[in-house]
UniProtKB/TrEMBL annotation:
Organism encoding this protein: Cladorrhinum samala
Residue ranges of domain Heterokaryon incompatibility in the record: 183-331
Record protein name field: Heterokaryon incompatibility protein-domain-containing protein
Cited Pfam families: HET
Length: 680
């Protein structure tokens, strides 16, 4: 620990004593000057040195360059318990929302609001202390408790599941239950190590008492540690996917995956192995000698007043392989309460509180008002969400940044979340897309180069694979936008050729209720052609369509809409984007290109075909580099347009852009035209 208390003139002006003792201060904004000044001052100033380490630790090279380019370094003193790790006060750097500089205290030395780092983390976790955290949650937080009522029917809790298999850590075997009992659920990264798996052949053997000990050395370390932890916490049962779902039985796997949301939501506790890159990472600190502790940088800025760095659990997760995996996403998202095992500490979070090894225990409800739910998808919170479709789009933005070993699992690994949102929004999903607001979810932007995912439609987010997340527009009044700014009557064509409406208002009585929670179509406005003489009245699908070979296994979208032909110029081969250009040579908006490196479409200098999908009021923030070209947009002055490429009678998405409405008058031949589309 830094012991010098030398401070520069900027830092000497910060009232550390008042802040440490919770007293009123005249300002909570403290400027340390330009980054270059802070760097130079860090040679002598204790606090500048601490801020430098705090600001740059864990940052990538590009972020370090961004640090140097900022006009000044500003710290904000925050006292709201909602935003801070552990719920106490600290300094926040404006660009580091998940990290804080906070006062390190010892019991009784500083006020209760500054309790961080009072506990030195030992080489082994304190099981009685963890039990205390969970007991406090169980006793005081109703929303965190799983429904263990004996009156609840098994099928109501786990619909479609015949039995719930669990590891009985007392009998040391696999058991099958048709009642909800208290159990731990393990969430971990499988990785490439040999993982012990339940199969049709070894199922009977594993159900004999004592067989866990027999196969103990064949279990990866994360599962061994989870079994040991379950015993130490005094719980009898543990659920682990590889041992509780029959891995070579597709029907059993499907039943289990279909209730994955319920399995994790109804667990007594979810244990997350947020360490390492495979199932042999273990739970650091559970066994002697399995973790090494190192304190974060800290400095004594005034005699007896020491500050150190603390990071939120979400920030710590961002540094892990665990956070990059798609299968673990819904496990983490849906759990009511979680015990994270990080390399150097254990953190417990629930709907109401957060407890850490490195902090004094504070088991009061931290977020009594406006609290951020640990799991936003809990059944008890669904009624409070008035914008579920917009929230679903944010979940998709997070999920599409994750990676899968088997690309074809993209919807399967998301099944529980899709079902939950389907129930919340009042309508079904089609290929991961909510059908009641299809116009909104079909307009997604895939930044960077994306390639087609085989077996999934191009109109769905699931049909594209990339290293970056997708993004959606933030329509604040989605229902009004769907009524006033969209017009397409969507039909779906199945593999058998049968055609039916995607959305049937008569089949969705919830939408007769004037409740903004149910976001979706109530009525549609017809499209009025901006060019005289073009008939846009036809919306019904044609019975006869061009031959399609092979016919995809997923449903196709069949519909009529306005079509224009534009060129793409100024293509950026690294960002896979460009600018839409009309026949007058004017730039009419930005476009992001999909499958940029897997098609010759973009090699052509000829006009390309764009579907006019809906109206848009402005361009995305991420497209600001085009603002000088297209000017300042007026409200509803744009169309959302999809670039398509025809493949054996089926159109496929090849890009998404926004076009100034005037662009329709500058379409190349043969547009503009009202045209029927079959989109796959």
């Amino acid at each position: 620990m830094e012991t010098s208390t030398t401070l520069c003139q900027y830092c000497a002006a910060i009232p550390f004593e008042k802040l440490a003792n919770g007293r009123h201060v005249d300002t909570t904004r403290f400027s340390l000057g330009a980054p270059s000044r802070v760097e130079k001052s860090a040679e002598e100033c204790t606090f500048c040195r601490l801020v430098m380490d705090f600001a740059l630790s864990g940052l990538r090279y590009t972020h370090r360059l961004s640090w140097k380019s900022r006009p000044e370094v500003v710290l904000f003193w925050r006292t709201d318990r909602v935003h801070h790790p552990g719920g106490c006060a600290g300094f926040q750097l404006i660009s580091s929302f998940d990290k804080f500089l906070t006062f390190i205290s010892t019991p009784g030395k500083l006020p209760e609001h500054s309790f961080h780092h009072a506990h030195a983390v030992s080489g082994q976790v304190d099981i009685p202390r963890i039990s205390k955290w969970i007991k406090s949650c169980n006793d005081n937080h109703k929303e965190c408790r799983p429904p263990l009522s004996s009156t609840a029917a098994f099928q109501d809790i786990f619909p479609g599941l015949e039995v719930l298999r669990l590891i009985d850590v007392e009998e040391n075997c696999l058991v099958e239950r048709q009642a909800h009992v208290a159990y731990l659920a393990l969430s971990y990264v499988w990785g490439s190590v040999a993982n012990f798996r339940l199969t049709r052949i070894n199922r009977s053997e594993l159900m004999r008492p004592g067989t866990v000990a027999k196969f103990w050395n064949r279990f990866p370390y994360s599962i061994r540690d989870a079994i040991d932890l379950t015993r130490k916490l005094g719980v009898r049962y543990l659920w682990v996917d590889s041992i509780c779902l029959i891995q070579n039985d597709s029907d059993d796997l499907k039943r289990g995956v279909n209730v994955m949301d319920q399995i994790y939501e109804n667990a007594w506790l979810t244990v997350i192995a947020a360490h390492g890159h495979d199932a042999n990472a273990g739970l650091p600190g559970l066994q002697p000698g399995t973790r090494q502790t190192k304190p974060s940088p800290q400095s004594e800025v005034r005699p007896g007043i020491t500050l150190g760095q603390i990071s939120s659990s979400s920030y710590l997760l961002e540094q892990t392989i665990y956070q990059t995996r798609a299968w673990t996403f819904q496990e983490h998202t849906l759990s009511r309460r979680v015990l994270y095992f990080f390399p150097d500490q254990v953190i417990f979070t629930c709907c109401e509180n957060e407890c850490r090894e490195i902090c004094n225990d504070d088991t009061r409800d931290q977020w009594a008002s406006g609290r951020p739910m640990r799991s936003p998808l809990l059944a008890s919170t669904l009624a409070s969400w008035h914008t579920p479709a917009r929230f679903y789009s944010r979940i998709l933005t997070q999920y599409t940044a994750k990676s899968l070993t088997n690309s074809g699992d993209i919807l399967w690994a998301f099944e529980g979340i899709m079902r939950r949102f389907s129930q919340m929004m009042g309508y079904r999903m089609m290929q991961g897309v909510p059908i009641g607001s299809l116009d909104f979810f079909i307009v997604f932007f895939g930044f960077g180069n994306r390639i087609r995912r085989p077996g999934f439609p191009s109109y769905s987010w699931a049909g594209w694979l990339g290293t970056k997340a997708i993004a959606y527009r933030d329509e604040t009044k989605l229902n009004i936008w769907l009524i006033d700014r969209t017009w397409i009557i969507w039909y779906q064509r199945g593999p058998d050729g049968a055609v039916s409406p995607v959305w049937d208002p008569a089949a969705n009585p919830l939408f007769l209720i004037d409740d903004p929670k149910f976001e979706g179509y109530r009525e549609r406005c017809p499209f009025t052609s901006p060019i005289a003489g073009i008939d846009t009245s036809r919306t019904r699908p044609s019975a006869a369509v061009p031959a399609m070979r092979p016919v995809p296994s997923y449903p196709l979208l069949q519909f009529w809409t306005f079509v224009v032909f534009l060129k793409i110029e100024e293509v950026d081969v690294f960002y896979a984007d460009g600018i839409l250009v009309g026949k007058d040579g004017v730039h009419y908006g930005p476009v992001h290109l999909d499958g940029f490196e897997e098609t010759t479409l973009f090699d052509s200098k000829s006009p390309l075909e764009f579907l006019v999908l809906s109206e848009a009021d402005t361009d995305l923030d991420s497209l600001r580099r085009f603002a000088p070209v297209i000017g300042r947009p007026d409200i509803w002055n744009y169309y959302n347009v999809m670039l398509i490429e025809w493949n054996q009678g089926i159109a496929e998405r090849r890009g998404m852009g926004q076009m100034l409405k005037e662009g329709v008058h500058q379409s190349f031949e043969p547009g503009p035209v009202w045209k029927e589309i079959i989109l796959g």
